[in-house]
Amino acid sequence: MSSRGGVVGQRTIEASHCSEAVDALAFVAALLVDDRARSLAPPTDASQAKPNAASERAREPRRAGGTRSPAEARPGTSESSTGPGATSPAEDPPHATPLDRTSAPTAEPAGTEPAPTAPRETVPTDMQPRKSAAVERVRGDESTEAPEPRAPWRLGSGFGVGALLVSGVAPALRPGIELRATGYALHGRVSALSAAIGGRTTLPHDEVRLEGTGKFGWWSIVLTLCAGVHGQADRLAAALCLTGEGGQVVARGRATEDARGRRARWLALGPALQLGVRLGGPVWLAPGFELLWPSTRDRFVVGATELHKVPRLTFRAQLAVAVRWP
Predict the structure, then answer these.
(1) Which fold has domain 155-325?
(2) Where do the CATH 2.40.160.20 domains begin and end in the chain?
(3) Strand partners, 207
(4) How many Cα atoms occupy the beta-carbon half-sphere of 88 within 13 Å?
(5) For the segment 160-209, what is each residue's pLDDT rounded down to a tens digit?
(6) 182: exposed, middle or buried (C-beta count within 10 Å: 0-12, 13-18, 19+)?
């Protein structure tokens, strides 16, 4: 390889990657083509009319077939330091700056060899990155909206007192009173489960006949299981229940010969309907209605006269005021 002054010498290219070496070779080839174009241009004065003999000898192999000299074909070897074309490595920088790949190509004179271009790196199809199914699956999950968390159950308790209207425990309808403690579980503000236990009793009743007088009384323990719904911002409630009663019907005779008393077992079971209206804060008004079937049908008599017989079906009507927490 010859310099612009016509001095033949060796050029060494060092690079850490093949792509950098190819870019450097392309740059050197472009410089050679530019130098050749200048040598073929018509001389402007007598000093440029006759080219240097050493420069002609260096260009001859490339014009004939484009082959490289032995010094160019073997990078790393050097010519004899005693040769006429020996040059110092300081003349040209050992590393050439690669050309910008996007720059426009240099125009070449007619009849000259085109400058070599750097090969374009291609990646085999089997080595190209592919999307992982797991990644696509994760991205799909990210785009899906997360389900809303379920509303937790809320536990509470309450206490109530109510007025009763009771049938079946005496010859006539009897007013009574009820005390009840309730525990319940709310699921959000829609559904509720509750269990209540309490006590009931009626005011005494006197049944007067010619043969004598019978005095009736009644008490029971009540257990209720309910499933219901809430609505209107937890201001209204309705529930279907199963109610069971267990207690005694007490009757005593008066104003008659050989007066006696009797205690009959009371056991009844049946459905119930309970409603609720919030009056304000934790205070509720709770009306309800029950239909109960007694397990036994006892008879109460004075002499030969029947004072009372337990019917097949009894009912309870109630109106209670309850306090619930929370």
Answers:
(1) Porin (2.40.160)
(2) 155-325
(3) 214
(4) 2
(5) 999 999 999 999 999 999 999 999 898 876 788 999 999 999 999 999 99
(6) buried
